[in-house]
Amino acid sequence: MITMKIRPLSDQEVQQLRAETGGTAKRIHFNNAGASLPPDIVVDTVINYLNEEAIYGGYETEYKYRELLDDTYTQIARLINADTDEIAIVENASAAWGMAFNGIDFKKGDVVITSEMEYVTNLIGFLNAQKTYGIEFKVISNDEHGNFSLAALKNAISPQTKLIAITHISSTAGAMVPIIEIGKIARKHNILYLVDACQSAGQVPVDVKEIDCDMLSVTGRKYLRAPRGTGFLYVRKEVQDKLKLIFMDGFSAPWVSQTDYKVRNDARRFELYEKNRALTLGLSKAVGYALNIGIERIWQRIRHLAGLMRRQLEDIEGITVHDSGDQQCGIVTFSVNGMDSVLVKSELAANQINVSVGKAISTLIYMNKNQLSSIVRASVHYYNTEEEIKAMCNTLITIIKSYRP
Ligand SMILES: Cc1ncc(COP(=O)(O)O)c(C=O)c1O
Asked: How far apart are CA 76 and CA 80, in angstroms?
């Protein structure tokens, strides 16, 4: 295997990228797993488009920008190594995931295999399919080191296994699930494979051919730095006809005669005609921006910053870092002994530091197993700096002292 040396982001580049992101001058933003700060160019693109719609008309503006709007699919396809006709643009990851999952032709007795890191939307989807069709879902527990168990997955597979549905990066833990290895197992057994890459796209390289998944769902506002209310679904060409459509309109399934319609021949069948064009262009800009920097370089810097943050947090008395597993990402989770996570978050916010609180409901199985009701989540992006990490840790030390009896 040839390993290519990745050129790290230089301090100068980071400063330039920060200068292109107005928000970095105002706050220390460690809530990238919630929503990243968008680059100014993304914000300007959306505002300009809306202004043009207001002046020239929505349909007229769409016509003017039709090639750029269409290019969004090409940008996304490049990002995940797919073909443009395998991409549907939707408004968030839950819609993308639901469109894929609920399109599957489940029968009583079918089994879905998932992991303990699965996201709430998806777990509710399994429960709903259990109630509606009588499917069963099996949860693969992490091993004692916090790693997904490939051996347990292999053991769990049976002729009834219809789907393997996996969240690559959980919303409330730093651990990553080995989606490429899981993909090999899914393919070997000819089982449908759905990946939730909501926290992954824009953070780590995502290559659908390497993962060998059939469906993959993504949101725009997190590591991709796109506007809120954007997302996309990838559906492998060969699988598109196997999924039912939940909604149809004249765009996804046009008339062929007064008595019949024909479903589109590409993944855009999972879209409806009416959508937010301004946000679509913003998504396109954000994806292009990330590709321009280079996802490998982004990932390298995020790993570096998150590792530094974990080490510094671990050195603070009274703080417990909860991340486990061999593969860690940019999401750092911790708690302050004796302090509610919501209070930690609000104290940091009073010091212009954004973090978020990961609640048990987001990843109920993982959180219950680890007896966690909530955790503080500090998620780094490439535009964060070592100084910001130091500042957050110093602020935490002050907060802890001020609450000590
Ligand atoms: C792992 C994961 N999957 C799915 C979602 C849902 O994304 P959206 O809010 O865009 O529907 C989230 C949101 O936090 C998430 O973290």
From this structure: 6
Asked whether 266 lines ligand 1 (CB < 6 A), one says no
| Structural domain range at position 316 | 11-38+294-403
Q: Are residues 238 and 100 in the same domain?
A: yes
Residue 278 contacts residue 355 (beta carbons within 8 Å) = no
CA of 258 to the centre of ligand 1 (A): 40
The CB of 92 under 6 Å from ligand 1? The reply is: yes
Three-state DSSP at 98 gives helix
User: Which residues are registered as beta bridge partners of 29?
Assistant: 354
How far is Cα of residue 120 from the mean position of the Cα atoms in its chain?
Answer: 13
Judge whether residue 127 has pLDDT over 80: yes
Closest CA to 279 of 337, 237, 321, 231: 231
Whether the predicted pLDDT of 330 surpasses 60: yes
Residue 2 belongs to a domain: no
Residue 37: which pLDDT band, with cuts at 50, 70 and 90?
very high
* 3-class state of residue 340 by DSSP: coil
Most ligand 1 atoms within 8 A of CB, residue of 94, 172, 176, 367 to mutate: 94
- Which of residues 270, 292, 314 is at a domain's end? 292
